[in-house]
Amino acid sequence: MAKTLDKVDVVTVGIGWTGGIVAAECAKAGLKVRGLERGKNRGTQDYLMIHDEYRYAIRYDLMQDLSKETITFRNHRKMRALPMRQMGSFLLGENLGGAGTHWNGMSYRFLPYDFQIKSMTEERYGKNKLPSDYLLTDWGITYDELEPYFDKYEKTAGISGEDNNPFWGKRSSDFPTPPMKKTPILKMFESATKKLGYHPYMLPSANISEAYENPDGQKIAPCQYCGFCERFGCEYGAKSSPEITVVPTALNTGNFEPVFHANVVEVLKSGNKVTGVRYFDTQTGEEFIQPADVVVLTSYVLNNAKLLMVSKIGEQYDPDTGRGTLGKNYCYQLGPGTTGFFEDQMNVFMGAGALGMSIDDFNGDSFDHSDVDFIHGASITLGQTGVRPIQTNPVPPDVPAWGAEFKKASIYNYTRTLSVHGQGATMPHKENYMTLDPNYRDAYGVPLLQMTYNFTEQDRNLHQFITERTAEIMKEMGAKTVVPGSPITDYDIVPYQSTHNTGGTTMGASPDDSVVNNYLQHWDADNLFVVGAGNFQHNSGYNPTATVGALAYRAAEGIIKYSKNGGSLV
């Protein structure tokens, strides 16, 4: 029998960026917050021996245990969905900090176009730019309305950058810290893109360029450019993550209590209110009920959607009828790019997760799409993230993939290879969605989440277009051999591509086309908030974290208002 605990003002399900931001803001406002994290406690002190590529980058030491919970995947409804048995296309973080611990730190704000994509696309190109199978929807909020929350997130995280990109939205203040070092490799990209008439800028980075103290008094160290960011925690405390920013801020109030090894399996609901959550202690097997005045789902995209589904909160999306919003508009991202092989050696092994330069000349609606068969686009970047020898063995296409010749070419090209890549936006399609799997269950007897997803014609056209642009840049950079990426066909759950999953718990102006309102308050239960990249109505040409952070600050503001006044916030 489940043991019922004392009631709290706010309970968060997960303690990463979103859970940490909500906890810090609500605790500072005097609310009693309990954070349930199914993983363990951890922090900078645990990463002192982090430079182990095999343990962390290959064996995924910081990631979710798929033997206990995974997802099932299929490309289309006629295909049988099967469980993902090891990490492939995306990497789900676990333990305190979640994916905010092992992220690279690229911290772009989404473009104004992203938030009003349906209305802006129709205004410029008409209602028939894309077929009706694409489910474009505005987000119910504009960039200008969200800008103050972007600003707050960036000051909390100490984001390093420069405000010289002509395509992104206006800023209320400059970046808190200067951009990272512009290395010789980045200068090559800068020179080539400027010669082509483009507008390069230093990538907004959560690998901090200089020592920084944020408005809450948390100190972040300067980056050491060691090259161990993505898939790793930071041993220097120099990569902004929840453990060194918002979580200690929440703890310092005395109003926040984290609970570890707490796997939430159900949100409890009575009438039009939620009453708390039910969870298991993953070490002892004990079952608990945590009552709360406000429940906030702050776990990863996929887990937030799954919790709503198993709790029967909201109407599941049906691709046959188009009814329902839960699980709808799942989107991923495209990875077009080009590899270049050079004559001269470069220090590619040095770098940082968000050390790079980008252009947005082909992102969002920065260029006229009248004569192309797609909308949106991609940021195009050269990142100097610090390539590591186990995972990176580049050889030209005419070299065998094994044997003595491969070994020789791999050693030679390791320091002579660069990649220019795009992050391509994907649009929601009626056949791409999430639901519960009817056949498979996790270690706690809960149905697995089932993902139905494939690339569409829009994706293939955009991918080819951006691939051609990256090849032009690489040629201008002077590579002796230029190797554009192959065209995409069907999406595959392997190999790794990005952890930029979005949708399924979308935000909007109406319950007819969204799960939550623009405070991320659930339409069917006004004391339930759902926070994360699942709120995105589509994916963008950027990494999602800064937009997730901004939305979390807005949600926290809404939770505090609700706690005082109750009722719907819109």
Automatic annotation (TrEMBL):
Record-annotated Glucose-methanol-choline oxidoreductase N-terminal domain positions: 218-329
Keywords: FAD, Flavoprotein, Oxidoreductase
InterPro entries: FAD/NAD-bd_sf, GMC_OxRdtase_N, GMC_OxRtase_C
Pfam families named among the record's database cross-references: GMC_oxred_C (PF05199), GMC_oxred_N (PF00732)
Superkingdom, taxonomy of origin: Bacteria
Assigned protein family: Belongs to the GMC oxidoreductase family.
Name this protein carries in UniProt: GMC family oxidoreductase
Organism, scientific name: Sporosarcina contaminans
Native organism taxonomy: Bacteria, Bacillati, Bacillota, Bacilli, Bacillales
